Amino acid sequence: MMADFSVLPPALIVDDEPNIVELLGITLQGMGIAVTGAYSLAEAFARLAEGAPSLCLSDLRLPDGSGIDLVRRLHALHPRVPVAVITAYSSADGAVEAMQAGAFDYMAKPIELTRLRRLISQAVDLARLSPMGSDGTQRLVGDSPVMRRLRDDIRRVARSNAPVHITGESGTGKELAARAIHASGVRHDKPFVAVNCGAIPDGLVESELFGAEKGAYSGAVQRREGLFVAANGGTIFLDEVGELPMMVQVKLLRAIQERSIRPLGASREIPLDLRFISATHRNLQEMVVAGSFRRDLLYRLDVVRLHMPPLREHPEDIPQLAEVILQRIGGAQPGVPTRLSAGTLARLGGYAFPGNVRELENLLERRIALQRDDILPEEELTSSGRVTPENSVLAAVSASAAAAGLDTAEAALLRQMLGQAGGDRHHAADLLGVSVQSLELRLSRLSLEEIA
Ligand SMILES: Nc1ncnc2c1ncn2[C@@H]1O[C@H](COP(=O)(O)OP(=O)(O)OP(=O)(O)O)[C@@H](O)[C@H]1O
């Protein structure tokens, strides 16, 4: 779809080399975007004071300072204005710092026109993305403060091409988060390719990822496109990236730096326009120290970090998660309960879930497969997962509320259960395992009658 750029304010181009300002200006104008130029940091600051540009392209090295200061200033003044930096060719030095400061992307000199046009189109798409992004975070269930913050972080990082590294225990939703980043950004209509780096035999990783020409190695009976090329234009999600063999780590580093790959046995490079998202449940810093993961690769992958909290740190999300999962897996089967009783929820809340949300899913799937009611027998919650009272569900309803006193904790629990019951007192009483009269008495004692 051809965008209508005419309604945008001018783009700001900052470079001390007039011919670069001219080249960028001509390209932008050719795409229908008005431009304004600045030849120093001071001049750029003066332009910003006049108003927000639609987007900004700036050299990193300016005569009176660093383009990173401009990125910071722009990000602070107008956080939704996309800014990209132009780096010196050899090393793309400063690119990682610029993206950490808020640049959505970078481009190395000498400037390649096809790439410049793509960068500008992405910047325009970003400038037009609604404040909340095209929201791909709905599938990440949970209203706890950590989950809300996570969804905000995802929407924020979705407005950039910077590589994201997702850490977190197994089953915490790292892949779900990667998909949400992709779905919330300007690449949402392009491919998302997930690769489990640990699941590919060492000898095949290179050809699987980068592709191979027919006959490139013994056994290569036909040409292989490779997953990077399959994902081109979109996002590649490298799960368990710590499992990559050293030789492939070198090639991955090159692919990120050069933005191109050469399939095995091929004579030419293929240009790449990819967003990299990686994940691991291992400690890559430790692997770097142990010599099994390249420090320079970690530096390139870990530009923006997202951490997925283990389920035991937000047990207050268990009821909602259970409901969504039950609806998803049991929705088609008549008679399958889509809510759990208060007793079951309390037992689940007292469990540490070493396998996190995936374990909760498995547990609920088993219940449905066995066609049992929603009672989870003690023996299913293995002793390894048992937790201490301080992170049980009742404590977790609101640890801070509990600290403020018993009444506050009770009020928080009543609010939560009424919320879950959609305001239905009978249902809420069921969830709590008390009579409606008892629930009403408690509500009245705590002056909460109005919330139901
Ligand atoms: N917040 C959440 N809301 C809804 N479903 C979730 C949430 N977190 C995880 N899940 C579900 O739990 C399962 C495991 O999630 P996912 O595969 O993304 O975890 P992971 O961290 O990538 O696991 P691993 O490290 O084992 O690859 C998936 O079915 C996913 O849909």
How is this fold's topology laid out?
Elements: E1 11-14, H1 18-30, E2 35-38, H2 41-50, E3 56-59, E4 61-62, E5 65-66, H3 67-77, E6 83-87, H4 95-101, E7 105-108, H5 113-128, H6 145-157, E8 164-167, H7 174-184, E9 192-196, H8 202-210, H9 227-230, E10 235-239, H10 246-258, E11 260-261, E12 270-271, E13 275-280, H11 284-290, H12 295-301, E14 304-307, H13 318-330, H14 342-349, H15 356-369, H16 393-397, H17 399-404, H18 406-420, H19 425-432, H20 436-445
Parallel strand pairs: 1-2, 1-3, 3-6, 6-7, 8-13, 8-14, 9-10, 10-13
Antiparallel strand pairs: 4-5, 11-12
Helix pairs in contact: 2-3, 13-15, 18-19, 19-20
Bound molecules: adenosine-5'-triphosphate.
Adenosine-5'-triphosphate (ATP) binds at residues 140-142, 168, 170-176, 239, 281, 321, 357-358, 361.
How would you sum up this structure, described in words?
By secondary structure, this protein is of the alpha/beta class. It has 3 domains: 11-128, Response regulator (Rossmann fold, 3-Layer(aba) Sandwich), CATH 3.40.50.2300; 145-307, Rossmann fold; 312-451, no CATH class. Helices cover 44% and strands 12% of the residues. The chain has 20 helices and 14 strands. It has a 5-stranded parallel beta sheet with strand order 2-1-3-6-7, sandwiched between helices. A 5-stranded parallel beta sheet has the order 9-10-13-8-14. α2 (41-50) runs parallel beside α3, α18 crosses α19 and α19 (425-432) packs across α20. The longest helix is centred in the N-terminal third of the chain and has 16 residues, at 113-128. The site of adenosine-5'-triphosphate (ATP) has 17 residues, from α7 and α15. Adenosine-5'-triphosphate binds at residues 140-142, 168, 170-176, 239, 281, 321, 357-358, 361. This is Sigma-54-dependent Fis family transcriptional regulator. It comes from Acidithiobacillus ferrooxidans.
